[in-house]
Amino acid sequence: MENWLKGFGLKTKKTNKDSTKSSDIGTVSVQSLSLLDGTSSSNIASTSNANISSSSTTTVHKFVATEIDRPNRPILQSYPKTDGRNFRSQWFDQFKWLEYNPEIDACFCYICRTFITTETKETAFVKTGYRNWKNALEKNRGFRKHEETSTHLVCLSKWEEYKVRSTINQEVSTLVNDNVLSKHRYYVRSVFEVIQFLAAHELPFCGDYVKEDHSETGLFRALFEYTLKKDQELQNCLKCIPENAKYLSPEIQNEIIEIMASCIRSEVAKDIENADVPFFCIMVDGTRDRNNAEAVSIVVRFVKNGVPTESLLDIIEAHDLTAEYLTNLILKTLNDNQVDTKKLLSQCYDGAAVMKGCRGGVQALLGEKLERAIPYVHCFNHQLHLIVTDLVKKVNSVQKYFDYCARIHKIFSTFKFKSYYGGHRTSRLLEQRWTGHLKVTEVIYNNYTTMIEALCCAMNQEFEELDGVTVVECVGLVAIMKSLSFRFLLRTLLKIFKTIEPADRILQHRDNGLATALPIMRSVYSTLQGFRSDDIYNDVLRECCDLLPDAQDASFNSADNTRGSKRKIKANVHLVDYVVTESSGIHQVECKQLYFEILDLVLQLFDTRFFDNCSLFDVIDKVFNFSFENIDELANFINIHPNIVNVIPSNEEIICVKNYFIENKIEQKDYFITLFSLKNAFKKTYNLFATAATFSCSSATCEATFSTMNRIITPYRSSMLFGRSCNLTIIPFEKQRLNKIDVDSFLKIFNSRKNRKLQLY
Predict the structure, then answer these.
(1) Annotated domain spans of the chain
(2) DSSP 3-state assignment of 353?
(3) Model confidence pLDDT, tens digit, residues 203-221
(4) What is the pTM of this model?
């Protein structure tokens, strides 16, 4: 058989002879399927449009596109002779199914060779080739006899049906009627919905296997059985479905989960393709999951329907952490999801050298591979954290303060202390997030008196459960917390951190980008500048003294804190102009120096990280505030991407838009929304704003995906493969897209993956 296949220029394929074997990729008998609507298998087999082979076991057959489109009919000047006779090209016109292989000098039946599904006794026209030219045209022999065989007639009907369906582009899969197919789809849809619910709510699928009952206790089985009890139609479907085609196995679960995640990724890619402006930005971050695998999250940002959107494109396992490897990984992910890299506008990563390196980092290599400069934005969230960590490293008093906070958290987190302490729980310090520094400072400040009382009780050994080491530590913490320096740092740092907190909050939202973050950062910076005054310092000092009114340093006047003298001291008349009657307050002087040292350092770090020599920030701020007079002021913006020139409005349009804003009293915060509603009139101005809104400034969305992944990889799921964990992370993270998946599209994808036992279409 391989010889005649090679003669037609075709590759040989190995076929599975056991077509009735029970597996997920087999076929289900028509007889069992016909029971769903009362149609007998004999009636189906006798249908004029017979789509099944005439064999002892009637099976549903799905037409598949053949490797050739028409019979092989070479017209030769002369054909080889056998016993003085030879093949004639005129027979092609008489028999439309006839084809000829000149290499072996034999003819075949094209439709039988293409559409036959079972073994047949007549092998000449299918396998070996027909060469009896003498009897080729006789009535009951040769070509005419073959035309009358049942095998040929069945294949002929398949061929005719295939040509009709191919013409109207309609799929032909089975002879089972629409009622049976709809029941199959309803059953698979029910399985899909159970998996969709569990995946969307981050719930586990499997449970323990009860050996005595031979049953599983997982949520998937339990929820499906509950659905089965409530749904009578589903019960009717299940009764007629073979045991080996119920689609409840873990393999089918994984496949459905993978299709869901694939549909979500496809929708993200479509949104990028159909975005308001042909640009997108990428944010990339990485972490090790609980199974010690390096997960790289790739998020894209674009503007669709007037709304800046950040969506998770994919989570990939990284086997190397070099810049070259990560760059290729990013480009491969974009290409695999059919995202056009020519539309890449900017990139946003953390400050790791492998990512931000201006020569060998990912941001530099990505520009080299795409052959153009791509602006890099250092994640604002990471920069806020670096400001706090730099402050801790450079100011020794601040470092000691947080060391004390760590000890306080350790003491108040013990089981013995929890029963006696009634205040809010403290938070541990995190190396990755500065918000831990804010939370522990805020809790200590708001529960200062309660904490002091609890420590004093421990110090006086009122808690019998505490050991001597803990009591000694409590004595030391009481002395530290009552000191002026600790209280002053507590109030000063809380004031600074609470001022920075709004910037961190806005950067956590997925719809806020560089254009909306920059004004917040400027307002935070100006607020911190306003703190640099003696009045604000005195307010801070007074508030820290109010924490402990009975302390000796509670008053600004040291005379109030000294004992009365037994005799009246008379000043020297020669030194009357030089006598100081009030204490200069050595501790207060140190506090003032520390206050301005901390504040100046924070302002310097803010200025260096956010506002120094950044033309990109300035031009985006100028665009979103509409503070430019003509397009000449946008030269730096135009040079960012070759296609940005297509979204630059004319000077006349700019004037019209400004006049419209003035006449209609449109506030600056409503510029973007107003332009979206008027994009048909001011199209390029809207496109300019949308392009500015596309720039990202934070990889917080990437970090949010890692939080989702950590919730999914529980100790009971530690053996889960990385691919499944990634898909289970994408599904709940993009829950809105999951709910919009077209179930019919899903069923078609599921049906096309393998030769399913249950045909759906």
Answers:
(1) 2-168, 177-377+720-761, 383-611, 616-694
(2) helix
(3) 988 866 555 555 667 889 8
(4) 0.71
